[in-house]
Amino acid sequence: MSLSPPFAFPTNLLPDEASPEWMNKADNAWQLAAATLVGLQSVPGLMILYGGAVKKKWAVNSAFMVLYAFAMVLVCWVCWGYHLSFGDELIPVWGKVDIALEQKYLLEQAYLGMFPNASMVFFQFVFAAVTLILLAGAVLGRMNFYAWMLFVPLWLTFSYTFGAFTIWSTKGWLSKLGIIDFAGGYVIHLSSGVAGYTTAYWVGPRLTTDRERFPPNNIIMMLAGAGLLWMGWTGFNGGAPYVASLDASLAVLNTHICAATSLLTWLILDIIFFKKPSVIGAVNGMITGLVCITPAAGVVQGHAAIIMGICSGSIPWSTMMIVQKKFKILQKVDDTMAVLHTHAIAGILGGLFAGLFSEPHLCKLFYGSENKYMGLFRGLRLGTSESIRWGIRQMEIQVVGILFVVVVNVVITSFVCLFVQLIVPLRMTYEDLEVGDGAVHGEEAYAIWGQGEKIETPMYSSYYNDIETPSKVDLSSTEMQLD
Predict the structure, then answer these.
(1) Cα–Cα–Cα angle for 284, 289, 292, rounded to 5 degrees
(2) Is pLDDT above 50 for 6?
(3) Is the model's pTM score more than 0.90?
(4) pLDDT over 80 (residue 207)
(5) 373 DSSP 8-state letter
(6) Helix, strand or coil for residue 399?
(7) Which of the four pLDDT bands, split at 50, 70 and 90, describes residue 102?
(8) Rounded mean pLDDT of 229-257?
(9) Which GO CC terms are listed, alphabetically (predicted)?
(10) Positive or negative torsion for Cα 204, 208, 212, 214
């Protein structure tokens, strides 16, 4: 049956032009699906995880920080961030500024995949966005929202792009050395953990009462966000090879093995030492497992993923539950969601384990080179002087990468915070800190207050208006309600 207008194909958009010979439809479909899964980790994943994990009075603010960052990063990314991270080399740690919106460029083949640049730009955007959103976890419950609005584009431009270009771009100096960072253990998790902790230092702590008692307002909602984060990690690590390949399948399986093992390890430690199976602890264990496997997901075998899961469920648990409580210097920084432990320390573990457990034949699937990448344990098993030398060299590169990311993020994040502070205070006012969402946004997460009475606060009303709101209630007599 022949097609007739309006069902005939337009002559200026023939099927062969829409699907050029260089494009692999399966790879392109998987890359877009993987990018969407990573995007869902942020919106709504981390949005509802943060919104449920904080006190009721910070639910809106915490979720809104996620939503704002997601939108702002996208605009900055297509205007200059992508080419700073993956464009032509300007300096060894930075690309040249350019706009990634020209139609000709977006429809050309990506330099690392058989799909168009449009798919690559979108995939790398969701990675950049989740980094800022993870960073936000360290400063929930007190960072001035206007300061956050300035911080996001500045940190993306002057910190994230440095790490992405240096480690992921084929032109970056650490990339040329042969660092292994499969899907962002360094670029995303170590960066967000260190930068988040640094930002928390400059912003300052929450109110003493909030810091001492900060119960989740909705654990079920928090679990829903955690579930989206876990399942979304399929796209996080599975999309890293830029091809629907054997390596992608292995990376996905290893990801879930490590996460499950880490969750169970953390849970068992909680039961042994605290005599209760903690849901919040299990979520932390899940996250540390996902973070730890990320830099090595597609270049290690399954048994290594189990070992990594045991370590990621026990070492960050120890630093959070024991080391943090013993050293007062660590207690001076108020890290709301413990990103130092769940992302920075877990990211360091993953980077080191990648240097220990990576297999040359798996690295060849991902990097296209077998001899340049070799885990220390494989080098020792082969037993030749050359293999041992390559294994030691790999560990040295992994350590250099850790030091580079830590120094860059501490220094640049500090400069960004100090610059923002010249324009707007980093921390909310005391009055805003006491009231929370109602004072900051004029909105509340839940409409019910006290004994079923609904708050009738106008959206844009002043904190000091005459309407009877929770801010007018005697705080000492309504402690349980404020919590």
Answers:
(1) 120
(2) no
(3) no
(4) yes
(5) -
(6) helix
(7) confident
(8) 97
(9) plasma membrane
(10) negative
SS3 24: coil
- The partner residues of 91 in beta bridges, in order of sequence, read 94
Spell out a b/e string for 293-320, using b for 16 or more CB atoms within 10 Å of the CB, else e: bbbbbbbbeeebbbbbbebbbbbbbebb
Give backbone dihedrals phi and psi of 371, rounded to 5 degrees, phi first. Answer: -75, -25
Give the architecture-level CATH label for domain 39-423.
Answer: Orthogonal Bundle (1.10)
Residue-level pLDDT at 466:
42
Q: Report, as an integer, the average pLDDT of 271-277.
A: 95
Contact 296, 304 (CB under 8 A): yes
Residue 170: Cβ-neighbour burial (10 angstroms; 0-12, 13-18, 19+): exposed
Residue spans of the domains in the chain: they are 39-423, 447-482
* Count of CB atoms situated within 10 Å of the CB of 9: 10
* Alpha carbon distance 411, 466 (integer Å): 45
Tracing tokens 């034949």 back to the chain, one arrives at 361
Distances (CA, A) of 259 to 266, 273, 307, 451, 482: 11, 21, 11, 42, 35
Using CA atoms, how far residue 317 sits from 172, 234, 382, in Å, is 34, 24, 34
Structure tokens of 328? 């007062």
Return the amino acid letter for 5.
P
- For the residues 355-377, what does the mean pLDDT come to? 87
β-sheet bridge partners, residue 454:
448
Tokens of residue 177, six digits: 């050395």
Of 74, 71, 130, 51, the residue nearest 441 (C-alpha): 51
Residue whose structure tokens are 């080419």: 83
pLDDT band for 103, please (50, 70, 90 cuts).
Answer: confident
| Helices 385-423, 346-357: crossing angle, 10 deg rounding | 160
Distance CA 136, CA 197 (A): 10
Q: Which of 237, 178, 89 is nearest to 400 (CA)?
A: 178
| 169 three-state secondary structure | coil
Contact predicate 348/190, CB 8 Å: yes
The rounded distance, in Å, linking the Cα atoms of 37 and 286 is 17
DSSP letters for 409-466: HHHHHHHHHHHHHHHS-SB--HHHHHH-HHHHTS--S-SEETTTEEP---TT--TTSS
Evaluate if residue 474 carries a pLDDT over 60: no
